[in-house]
Design goal:
Elements: H1 2-32, E1 45-52, H2 59-62, E2 64-70, H3 72-80, E3 88-99, E4 102-116, E5 127-133, H4 144-154
Antiparallel strand pairs: 1-2, 2-3, 3-4, 4-5
Length: 169
């Protein structure tokens, strides 16, 4: 009887260890996997546009035309104040050109992507951060340190689920 109890207990411990290890490996793989390039993001909802000009302290690193796009799930977040998993926000930064007194879009500098996935990104309010340079779908300059800096800035907007932009109705 005692041997049978010990065998059951050992089986339960081994099974629990296996399940825990499998879960940890799966979660680690998911959090380390890169955020995909948001194909077709410009077909999403255009949230807003902003022009950062030479007078801005941000001009050197982020001067130009800023467009923000959102997928349907992100739009629910703008409506409710809480962004659901699967929400994607894209910050499209373009250089400017002057043509006959008009400021127009120039080449793309980069796109920044925020994706809400509370399982993958539990330490950053559920948000993952990525950047793609120019028109590249693969050139990702952000390191984990850079992603941490992204979140440290977005932490200021915790009351708004870490999102800076607002949707103007």
């Amino acid at each position: 009887m005692r041997t049978n109890m010990m065998t059951k207990r050992t089986t339960v411990i081994v099974l629990a260890a296996f399940v825990t290890l499998t879960w940890v490996v799966t979660m680690r793989a998911r959090s380390d996997s890169p955020i995909a390039y948001p194909l077709g993001y410009r077909k999403g909802v255009h949230v807003k546009t902003m022009l950062v000009g030479p007078q801005s302290p941000f001009f050197k690193t982020a001067g130009g035309i800023h467009h923000v796009y959102a997928n349907d799930k992100a739009m629910r977040g703008y409506e409710t104040g809480k962004f659901p998993d699967g929400a994607i926000l894209v910050f499209d930064l373009l250089d400017t050109k002057e043509t006959d007194g008009a400021t127009i879009e120039g080449p793309r500098q980069r796109i920044d992507v925020m994706i809400k996935d509370t399982q993958r990104f539990p330490t950053t309010g559920g948000w993952g951060f990525e950047r793609f340079l120019g028109d590249s779908e693969t050139d990702r300059p952000l390191t984990e340190e850079h992603r941490g800096l992204c979140f440290s800035c977005h932490e200021k907007r915790k009351a708004h689920d870490f999102v800076f932009s607002t949707f103007r109705k």
